[in-house]
Design goal:
The structure holds 2 protein chains of 2 kinds. In chain A, strand 1 (6-17) and strand 2 (20-31) form a beta hairpin. Chain A has a 6-stranded mixed sheet, with helices on both faces. In chain A, strands 16-19-20-13-21-22 form a 6-stranded mixed sheet, with helices on both faces. Chain A has helices at 46-53, 76-81, 99-103, 118-131, 147-160, 177-192, 204-210, 233-241, 303-311, 335-341, 350-354, 361-366, 381-394, 411-423, 441-456, 468-474, 497-505, 510-515; strands at residues 6-17, 20-31, 35-39, 61-66, 69-71, 84-87, 165-169, 196-200, 213-218, 221-226, 259-270, 281-288, 292-296, 317-325, 328-330, 343-346, 374-375, 378-379, 429-433, 460-464, 477-482, 485-491. In chain A, helix 4 (118-131) packs across helix 5 (147-160). Chain A is built from 18 helices and 22 strands. Chain A is globular. By secondary structure, chain B is mainly alpha-helical. Chain B has 14 helices and 6 strands. Chain B is globular, with a radius of gyration of 22 Å. In chain B, helix 3 (55-80) runs antiparallel to helix 11. The chains are: A alpha/beta, B mainly alpha. Chains A and B meet through helix 10, helix 11, strand 18 and helix 15 of A and helix 9 and helix 10 of B. Chain B: This is ABC transporter permease. Chain B: Pfam families: BPD_transp_2.
């Protein structure tokens, strides 16, 4: 811990949004070469505090000192000039531009003739990416990359700024275990060179691994500060949520019923293959009713693509193999058909593909089940309201009014709305893609509770996740995918994270596969 | 199963923000009121009577906006799904020509002519919807092409000339019943075109309020990907919306023909821009997913009142254009101030 070398000192920070006090009287400091973890539920004030530090929020109470000199940033540019860089949770990349163009956006490298030096940018971008733990063709458009890869690009971009202070807001939420390890190596290297890092995360085990000091925020105040290697996860969680959480995970319920879904050697040959996509190349698995089956695998193993194929949203192409739902062969070509068969889907990125953020909670909740609230295409408002209220109750949604924009909810509550929408279609099988990404601990526990409850009612769940503890803790069984194939299946009763990881990584050559050959 | 306690649903504090939000929501209505009041103040007077609010003048104001208004209702639907329809003016011309040719030259009856013209508009719009939704061409391009095609069809059908409509029972005369649409008033005051506009507007408002389809429409405009994943039939919604817009453009074309007693292939040039202006002033977002028909109606009326009062004061028509432009910018600027959500 590099005390004394006070790089950043924020004292008495306060910030109000209307009636809500996002931060009150917060003291926060960061030393050179220190990794300071910031914890707290969504809405605890972490992001606000960091947005103040990075110049994004300019009207606040309190003072900020950098290297002992008081500063007041007029905007993000000022903060960047002072050596502060932030990696946002929302990825601020331009989808149409290449990886290299994005990394050097606004400070493009020039040739002698003042034209853009594309070759040098691509070379340097490639080197930067390798440093941050990924092999990726710098010429690929960012829009083609999956979320995890995009996250790595923003990290590389931030590192390229040569900042003295680096704020990372959930940098690992879409990364696989091996990529997280590489990122940690990068963080340790940065620390050695004297960079101060603020590390925001919901994942306790990461913080124990990488942080020198951890501070917990709750309701805009600092609750406690501690050495992350000393406190137990349970104690930290209790500090965050302000109440004891004894078990995060529900006990897997072994009491499962008949076979609900059978996937037999399923493969998809896309008409126009897209780079970075790993369509199924022969996957077989089953889900019984009342069973929660996990899908594990590295980034690029084909988990999302399998779920998309089952839900009828995969790109056009030739499907071989069979999908049987309750013994009947189906082949959904669009979500409507999948829903009609009783298959629901909660997508990976709720902001981009789950919700209309500026529409009401009500409208977002009922959109998949509209025909059931009236006749002849006319909606009975009372019925849809009642359904929405019922679902909000069941999911313990925290909200103001049903007509508020869904975008005003916290991440966890937004995710509950997507869940609720699917549950209102009364599915038999629920496909979930990273359902707890970017969701705080409290909401996570509630989602796990809900999954247990649904399984208890006979619903089958297929859950793709990058979080091994989640897969082990929530699922009855985990199927491991690698390169578009199922390579192993474990009962969670008698296997651990190590087994899954070993199966997912295979014979060691996997790292090359993940990045995609150049 | 779990030890997480249930927290009561926390009521989010509502500040004075909701009042401001309401103001913004109905900004076009307030804008209309403001322009209306200004019109009364600046109206020329004759014998102490304020000319602007005379019944005849007001009826004229609404009559003048009825065609643009009908088109703008359809345009609102298209813009709500994040699209645009540049072909409406040309479809209006095609429909006006069609009505005239069918009744005058082909001696069709009133009802068959009107029905065929409406079907032509509907099919034309639906085809543009197919090109947008199924082939995936941006609606701006599809309807830019549609504009040319509809204009070309109108020229071919009319032989390149305006077709005058005269009324009577003889050959080459349109049935008297057609004239009623243009000339008669309802209750001695409300012109029939205004009545048609009112019925269309009210039907659209009700439709957007109660139908499941409208929820789908807003969802498609708000986030197309999320809508598709939610099971919304995105392709069907898009085709239907463009079909509705084409249908309403054709209806406006019929109204146009009866008001001018002719159908010319040059009818409706530039109407698409006035319709878009009405929609924008009405507060509908060009990004889709946000807006209302009520706002559009207010927007269309606002433009109508503005035109009328400027004309009453004998202000140069070129200056009128300048003022209209400034009003559009002002309306759009106001929306930028809308509290973020």
């Amino acid at each position: 811990m590099a005390e004394g070398a006070g790089l950043v000192r924020m004292s008495g920070i306060g910030k109000r949004y209307g009636g809500v006090r996002a931060c009150r009287d917060v003291d926060f400091s960061l030393g050179a070469g220190e990794v300071h973890a910031l914890l707290g539920e969504n809405g605890a004030g972490k992001s606000t505090l960091m947005r103040i530090l990075s110049g994004d929020v300019t009207d606040y109470d309190g003072t900020i000192e950098i290297n002992g000199a008081p500063v007041h940033f007029g905007g993000p540019t000022d903060a960047q000039a002072a050596g502060i860089a932030m990696i946002h949770q929302e990825l601020d990349l331009v989808p149409g531009l290449s990886v290299a163009d994005n990394i050097f956006l606004g400070r493009e490298l020039r040739t002698k003739l003042k034209t853009v030096d594309r070759r040098r940018m691509e070379r340097e971008a490639g080197a930067l990416l390798e440093r941050s733990g990924v092999r990726l063709d710098p010429r690929r458009p960012v829009g083609e990359l999956r979320v995890g890869e995009q996250q790595l690009v923003t990290i590389a971009k931030a590192i390229s700024l040569d900042a003295r202070v680096l704020v990372m807001d959930e940098p690992t939420s879409a990364l696989t275990t091996s990529e997280v390890e590489r990122l940690f190596d990068v963080i340790r290297e940065l620390r050695r060179s004297g960079v101060g890092i603020v590390y925001i995360s919901h994942r306790m085990e990461e913080i124990a691994q990488v942080a020198d000091r951890a501070t917990v925020l709750r309701n805009g105040r600092i609750v406690t500060s501690f050495d992350p290697r000393r406190l137990s996860t349970a104690e930290v969680v209790e500090a965050m949520v302000g109440r004891p959480v004894q078990t995060m995970f529900t006990t897997p319920d072994a009491d499962t019923g008949d076979e609900l879904l059978r996937v037999d050697n399923l493969a998809l040959k896309a008409r126009r293959p897209r780079p970075g996509r790993r369509d199924p190349e022969g996957i077989s698995l089953t889900v019984r009713s009342g069973e929660i089956v996990g899908l594990a695998g590295l980034l690029g193993a084909g988990r999302t693509e399998l779920l998309e194929t089952l839900y009828g949203v995969a790109p056009a192409g030739t499907v071989t193999g069979r999908i049987l739902l309750q013994g009947k062969e189906i082949r959904p070509r669009r979500p409507r058909q999948a829903l009609a068969h009783g298959i629901g889907f909660v997508p990976e990125d709720r902001r981009a593909s789950g919700l209309v953020l500026f529409h009401s909670i009500l409208a977002n909740t009922v959109v998949s089940s509209l025909p059931s609230y009236g006749r002849l295409g006319v909606i009975a408002r009372r019925m849809e309201r009642a359904a929405s209220v019922r679902m909000a109750d069941r999911l313990r949604l925290k909200f103001g009014r049903l007509q508020d924009d869904v975008g005003t909810l916290s991440g966890g509550n937004q995710q509950k709305v997507v869940f609720g929408r699917m549950l209102l279609t009364e599915p038999k099988l629920l496909l979930l893609d990273e359902p707890t990404r970017g969701v705080d601990v409290g909401a996570k526990a509630e989602i796990y509770r809900l999954l247990g409850e649904l399984a208890g009612q006979g619903l089958g769940v297929l859950l793709a996740s990058s979080e091994l503890p989640e897969l082990i803790g929530v699922c009855d069984r985990v199927v491991v995918l690698r390169d578009g194939r199922d390579v192993a299946s474990f009962s969670t009763a008698d296997s651990g994270e190590g087994d899954l990881l070993a199966a997912a990584m295979g014979e060691g050559a996997v790292f090359e596969e993940v990045g995609g050959a150049q | 199963m779990t030890d997480v306690q249930d927290k009561p649903a926390t009521q989010v504090e509502r500040s004075a923000g909701s009042v401001v939000a309401t103001l913004f929501r109905f900004q076009s209505v307030f804008g209309l009121l403001a322009v209306f009041v200004a019109a009364i103040i600046f109206s020329p007077r004759k014998d102490g009577e304020i000319l602007f609010i005379s019944a005849d003048n007001l009826a004229n104001v609404v009559r003048a906006v009825s065609e643009i208004g009908i088109i703008a209702v359809g345009m609102t639907f298209v813009i709500l799904i994040g699209g645009i329809d540049l072909s409406v003016g040309a479809v209006l011309g095609l429909a006006a020509v069609g009505s005239a040719v069918l009744m005058v030259e082909s001696d069709w009856g009133f009802l068959p002519s009107v029905l065929l013209v409406l079907v032509i508009g509907l099919v034309f719009g639906a085809l543009q919807g197919v090109a947008t939704a199924m082939i995936g061409i941006q609606s701006f391009i599809v309807t830019l092409a549609g504009l040319q095609i509809a204009r070309g069809l109108a020229r071919i059908w009319s032989g390149g000339q305006g077709v005058a409509i005269s009324y009577g029972d003889g050959p080459n005369e349109a049935p008297e019943s057609f004239a009623i649409l243009g000339e008669r008033t309802f209750g001695g005051l409300v012109p029939i075109p205004v009545l048609i506009f009112a019925v269309v507007a009210i039907a659209a408002v009700v439709f957007l309020r109660v139908s499941a389809f409208s929820r789908h429409l807003y969802a498609v405009g708000g986030n197309e990907k999320a809508a598709r994943l939610s099971g919304v039939p995105v392709v069907r919604v898009k085709i239907a919306v463009f079909a509705i817009c084409g249908l309403l453009a054709a209806l406006a074309g019929i109204v146009h023909a009866v008001q001018l007693n002719q159908g010319s292939p040059n009818d409706g040039i530039g109407y698409e821009l006035d319709a878009i202006a009405a929609v924008v002033i009405g507060g509908t977002s060009l990004m889709g997913g946000r807006g209302s028909v009520a706002g559009t109606v207010a927007g269309a009326l606002l433009l109508g009142v503005l035109n009328n009062i400027l004309a009453l004061n004998n202000i140069d028509s070129n200056i009128q254009l300048l003022i209209k432009g400034l009003v559009i910018v002002a309306a759009a600027a106001l929306q930028r101030l809308r509290p973020a959500t």
